[in-house]
# Entry
Amino acid sequence: MRKQCIGISEYFATGEGVTYVIASGTEAQIREFAGDYFSIGLAFYSFEDIKHALSQSEELTEELVMNDTRLRAAYVLRTHLPSVVQFIKQNGFATFSYKCHYNLS
# Structure
């Protein structure tokens, strides 16, 4: 069985906005979901790492998590998918996929 993990990509482009790709599965499954372009920026984390980072980042602000990639991943996950966060905290694993793009200009 291939190792299940969480992949997170934050893609910022001037004039194009921001795109978030967050998914679980094997690295290959997550890359396929993200597509060739967004796969370049994916970072992968084990469910154990994310669960630990989620417990550490309960009270942290965005400014405090910018320098720790695990805490940043937990923060992004908590911000975009709070129901998935609760499921991971309770069960340790969840299958999900999420893409979000917005442009504020």
Notes: The CA atoms of residues 47 and 69 lie 14 Å apart. The mean pLDDT is 89. Strands lie at 5-13, 17-25, 43-46, 97-102.
